[in-house]
Amino acid sequence: MRLCIHRGTREIGGTCVEIESAGSRILLDLGLPLDASDSSAVPLPAVSGLSDSDATLLAIILSHGHRDHWGLVPRARQDIPLVMGRAAERIMRAAADFVPDGFAPKASAYLKSGQRLQLGPFSVVPHLNDHSGFDAYALEIEADGRRLFYSGDLRGHGRKSKLFDLLVARPPRAVDVMLMEGSSLGRLPDDGEFASESDLERAFVDRFQTTPGMALVACSAQNIDRVVSVYRAAKKTERTLIIDAYAAEVLKATGYDSIPKPVKGWPKIAVYIPQAQRVRMKRKGIAQLVGSYRGFRLWPEQLAELAPSSVVLFRGWMLRDLERAGAVGGAHLFWSQWEGYLRDGSGARLKADCQARGIPFEIVHTSGHASVRDLKRLVLAAAPDCTKSAAKSAHSVPIPPGAEILTR
Hints:
Layout: E1 2-7, E2 16-21, E3 24-28, E4 57-61, H1 67-70, E5 82-85, H2 86-95, E6 109-111, E7 117-119, E8 122-128, E9 137-143, E10 146-150, H3 161-169, E11 177-181, H4 197-209, E12 215-218, H5 224-236, E13 240-243, H6 245-253, E14 269-272, H7 275-284, E15 297-298, H8 300-306, E16 310-313, H9 319-324, E17 332-335, H10 345-357, E18 361-363, H11 372-382, E19 386-390, E20 404-407
Parallel strand pairs: 1-20, 3-4, 4-5, 5-6, 10-11, 11-19, 12-16, 12-17, 13-14, 13-16, 14-15, 17-18
Antiparallel strand pairs: 1-2, 2-3, 7-8, 8-9, 9-10
């Protein structure tokens, strides 16, 4: 077995790992670098078969549905088989019509935790991860009598932290090479800990209780753990969680009855569709979706009265609609995403808009990635012969017999 890390060792995101055995190849992820503002300006990795026909490229396996792991797939040949989680596929398809450069994949096979998948000479065993991206997997790959363990993105402090504990308790055995995420390296002290999602839920409860108007929570609708934390905090403070059509479709696409969504049996949840989103839905031919929100839908004239008893899953472009509805008096904004997004672009504009309007702005967030301490726990449990962290600070490592690591 040979492998080549094409991208992801000197940047956050852009992950792409090529594995070859017996003349056949697979790719683990094909992502867009996190700091890329224009995907068309990012060249495809030098992998035979991405742009030209090459039958030796058997598949692209997507570990999860974050753009820094799939963002270059739409630029590759569309007949390359895709392998991913079924729920991740549903979420990406549900989101595609709502987000810029959305991608609606159609997988040829699905990852199922603990179930072996054979792709030519490659035996693949997925392990469901705790991560801010729903339906995310670590991958155990075996060929030529050698075993590689690819951590994907994972953490041990989310709502599915038991999955991380299980992975540590029952790790893959006889691992020759481990490729591990390292997003927290250099960003968190070795003995530091991230707040848990339960910690965030308690923080939101405290903040919502002291917010006189609307509580605006700026987080990704695809961060399902975070949406659950916000919803639970809203219920505990007797507030209604207001979501838009995009969030409603993403939550429904998870396919899990335990996740809040605008369907019968879920109280304290409502759907408000801003004007720009109504226009987009009509242009995309999906305006009929609004019929499924009957009994949950709110109208602009209701927002001001509901403001003191509501929490809005918020994005910056919604601010104008809420202002027109007279619903921002006493509002507080809680930023629940990576702080780096506030340095420029839409995040910086939103912060400036809040300051101009006198809307208090506070960061209430925790990482979607493992702490250094948890990364060490995983390495010690898996006890690989060789570990290479796909982190900005990655270092070269010795190559075990029978395996070859190339980093481009």
